[in-house]
Design goal:
The complex is a heterodimer. Chain A is an alpha/beta fold. Chain A has helices at about 10-15, 30-35, 100-115, 135-150, 170-175, 195-200, 210-220, 220-225, 235-250, 255-275, 280-285, 300-305, and strands at about 45, 70-75, 80-85, 120-125, 155-160, 180-185, 230-235. Mean pLDDT of chain A is about 90; it is low at about 1-15. Chain B: Keywords: Cytoplasm, Phosphoprotein.
């Protein structure tokens, strides 16, 4: 690693030399929050020492986490007051349980009173935790309601998606209610995951082992190209920080005009791409000359490609 | 689920003034360690919750080795285990002690 012929690609130590240079994908929820916000500004609510843990997991002889897999609190982003929730994708796939969900709902409801400049949700979730599914499903619904209330009050809710669990199941539904979304190559957004689709419809319908298929169907670039996300970023904390600040500044209102625009956009999208059998067909129809090259593009080149296409930016979600 | 608590006397309090720290994640082969500076300077407790039953002797040995090496006086240490190997447990405990040695 340190020899004279070492690769020009920065090694892990170099990339992690500054906290914001660290990989978002590889970082834990706590590392993401600490590096994303202005240094030393994060104040956690219901921290691990409070031991707000799942009351259900012991019934299944499963280990609990002191924070139930989500870190919530307040801090500052470039001096602006923000509320933050970060899911830990490595604990039970970042899935929503009763306490996990209640912490997110509580943060959102509290933000209606404290009125931060934005709420940031660092998604990293496979959806609802099966061992406490009823409570988890309820939490998903309550979260979507709380986001709608908060957005109607004029507080933007920004989703940042780039973790190993992606943003699936109820997490994908919640993402759909956010004001703006930023996603990286490793981040994926969907409701049913690849293995769920394969289990129900067969490998002919969706081969979950085909990583390229998974990424080009649910990955960050495709979501950006089809209007499912508003920014595509490199897999660094710095890139997500820049994207969050940018998106906070241009979040749409949640009003009738936005909803009608979204309805019209979705109808047009279905009419335009409804018969496509693969993401590359959609990209081709969007006017991309070499759709096969899209997965290999760097974030910078990809942004250049998006800038040359019509209708990529819209205020509806 | 098996739980156990080990109580140790230490020769000195752990350096630093940080009140609490957490390291690791409850994932397969991993664990989280929560450290709180809440005990008298000559005492340390280690509480463990693990879904893998029957390894109490190994936990006791790993905990005793850690206390002898780090002298973590004053710490209440709580562990949620996800099936970590003993060397991983040792590593996390020492990581946690190092975090606590920082100034608040």
């Amino acid at each position: 690693m340190t020899g004279p012929n070492s690769s020009p690609i920065p090694n892990r130590d170099e990339r992690n030399a500054s906290p914001t240079g660290m990989s978002w994908y590889e970082a834990s929820a706590r590392q993401r929050v600490a590096a994303l916000l202005d240094p030393g500004t994060f104040e956690e609510v219901l921290g691990p020492e409070q031991r707000a843990m799942s009351p259900h997991l012991p019934l299944f002889a499963l280990p609990r986490a002191f924070d139930d897999g989500i870190v919530v609190g307040r801090g500052r982003l470039d001096g602006k007051a923000v509320s933050v929730a970060a899911q830990e994708g490595r604990f039970m796939g970042g899935a929503f349980g009763e306490v996990h969900g209640a912490k997110l709902v509580g943060l959102l409801r509290a933000a209606r009173a404290s009125r931060p400049e934005a709420v940031l949700i660092l998604f990293d979730t496979g959806g609802v935790r099966l061992q406490e599914a009823n409570a988890g499903e309820t939490a998903i619904a309550e979260t979507m309601r709380a986001i709608a209330d908060l957005r109607r009050d004029g507080v933007p809710v920004i989703g940042l998606i780039g973790g190993r669990a992606g943003c699936y199941g109820g997490g994908g539904l919640i993402a759909g209610t956010c004001s703006r979304l930023a996603v990286s190559e490793g981040g994926r957004i969907s409701v049913s995951g690849p293995e769920v689709i394969e289990t129900n419809k067969g490998a002919e319908e969706f081969d979950s082992k085909d990583r390229a298929l998974v990424w080009r169907t649910m990955g960050g670039k495709h979501r950006r190209l089809t209007g499912g996300a508003d920014a595509f970023c490199d897999d660094t904390v710095a890139a997500f920080r820049t994207a969050a600040l940018d998106l906070m500044g241009r979040a749409p209102a949640l009003d009738l005009a936005t909803l009608e625009a979204e309805q019209a956009r979705l109808e047009a999208r279905l009419a335009r791409f409804g018969d496509c059998r693969d993401a590359t067909e959609i990209w081709s129809r969007l006017g991309i000359d070499d759709p096969a090259a899209v997965p290999g593009l760097t974030a910078q080149d990809f942004d250049g490609l998006v800038a040359g296409l019509d209708g990529m930016d819209h205020d509806a979600r | 689920m098996e739980t156990m608590t080990f109580r140790h006397a230490t020769q000195k309090p752990l350096a630093g003034t940080r009140a609490q720290a957490i390291t690791g994640v409850v994932a397969s082969g991993n664990l989280e360690v929560l450290l709180e500076r809440v005990l008298p300077g000559d005492a340390c407790t280690i509480e463990i919750a693990t879904p893998i039953e029957g390894f109490g002797d190994v936990w006791e040995a790993v905990a005793a080795d850690f206390v002898a090496r780090a002298q973590p006086g004053g710490l209440r240490i709580s562990i949620n285990d996800g099936g970590a190997r003993p060397d991983t447990v040792s590593l996390r405990l020492l990581q946690g002690a190092r975090l606590m040695e920082a100034d608040a």
